[in-house]
Amino acid sequence: MDTDKVIQRRTTGGVWLILMAAVLWGTTGTSQALAPAGASPMTIGALRLAAGGGTLLAVALARGGLRGGGRWPLVATLCAGGFVAAYQLTFFAAVKATGVAVGTMVAIGSSPMIAGVLAFFFRGERPGRRWVAATVLAIAGCTLLVMAGGGGISVTPLGVLLALGAGGSYAAYTLAIKTLLDGRSPDAVMAVVFCVGALILSPLLAGADIAWLAAPRGALVILHLGVIATAAAYLLFARGLETVPVASAVTLSLAEPLTAAILGVVVVGERLTPTALCGIILLFGGLALLAVGKGRK
């Protein structure tokens, strides 16, 4: 019984860690929107990984997380880094093409089902009925938010396609990271994965116009994206992922578009229509169902 209680506490703690990470991720789209003119999605994505990977590496070295752990599986490591890099390019391009709200909601809203399928085929995880119900509620909420319109919200086919690519990349690198966490510290896994992703995107910075980075606002945007929305968020996410299944972790990450919608109201001044408000209620209900279910289990 004592062992069951310890497992329950660890699982509940993991749920809340992932939710906190998702809230930090929800600030990325707004942060890009506040970047100075001339900042391209590709440059922002590459600089975010460079800043985030460097911070994660410093944390791992300071904590001794890179010691031991055995050999790193080459395929899983390269896949994790590659999909992290792909997510940066597709997500920030989607946000630029179709806006913060739609880009974030479609990207993260599409990822739970993709993650459930991948986790089933590659890890043998079988999402339960509670996950199905929570995912349906959350995706319905995201759909209503996208359909709400108003407040400058627009939908473009290219933006939606890019956002779907981001959702698939997110689900895939979550699965790869889950595999790498077996026998390794979260600090080491995050540092290695994001450094690999940063190296993959580093050629994009060659010859790129990064003069805007010298402006205080540009530097603050990259510091926020790299240190807070990447390093801090993914350290929380990795620790939560140790005790939470892949499919559930990705569904919990739907707190990201919820955060993005709230920031749209508070920071950008967007107005919520009744449809958008219903979407937020459904989305919050799905997250609560999964979080409470994990805690009781």
From TrEMBL:
The keyword Transmembrane helix applies. SUPFAM superfamilies: Multidrug resistance efflux transporter EmrE. Its main location: membrane. Residues 14-146, 158-290 form the EamA domain. Pfam families: EamA. The keyword Transmembrane applies. It is found in: Membrane. GO terms for cellular component: membrane. It is a multi-pass membrane protein. The chain crosses the membrane at residues 43-62, 74-94, 100-122, 131-149, 155-176, 188-213, 219-237, 249-268, 274-292. InterPro entries: AA-Vitamin_Transporters, EamA_dom, EmrE-like. Keywords: Membrane, Transmembrane, Transmembrane helix. Belongs to the EamA transporter family. This is EamA family transporter.
